[in-house]
Predict the structure.
Amino acid sequence: MSKSIADKLGKGISPQQFLDGMTKNKEKFVDWMEQFSWPSADDREYFESLNNRDDLRCLILMAEWCGDVVRNVPAVFGALEVSGIPTEVLVMEDHLDTMDQYLTMGGRSIPIVIFADTGGAVLGQWGPRPKHVQEAMIAFKTANPDREAADYQDKLAETRQEMMRRYGDGPGYQAVVVQELRELLESF
């Protein structure tokens, strides 16, 4: 059975309302937003061309405390801003029923960017992070299934350091986010 977010359309807040309401990590979030730039003119043109479609909706499950949200959503907002796709934010804690339909390897990982048609039928999703960054977490979880193991937290800390290394110091990873979103949107 295909997923539907019909009951959530119109229940979220706007990206601007999310930004205005931030009390944690706002400065860093805004900093990443200000560093957003288009990887190419072709990418910008592609996202602008989506204004010709009125059949898409976007919901983003996220929370201001999450480092991956702070890093990735500014690129998502940047790309979608010119697309004309109605975009709503679902704050995770207020929408756990939806979050629990979009678990990543059994866990609540955000952001999750959900694209649907106007009726709410889910067409695809992206997140919680670029594939090359997520690969480190997949490898960790595959190799460390026992969360109670004595060295679990140490290995998790090492994995998080590796993920930060993969993100890099600057906004270069944002081009990957744009490319992955574009590939997803081109598939429907």
About this structure: The beta strands are 56-62, 87-91, 112-117, 122-126. The CA atoms of residues 131 and 180 lie 8 Å apart.
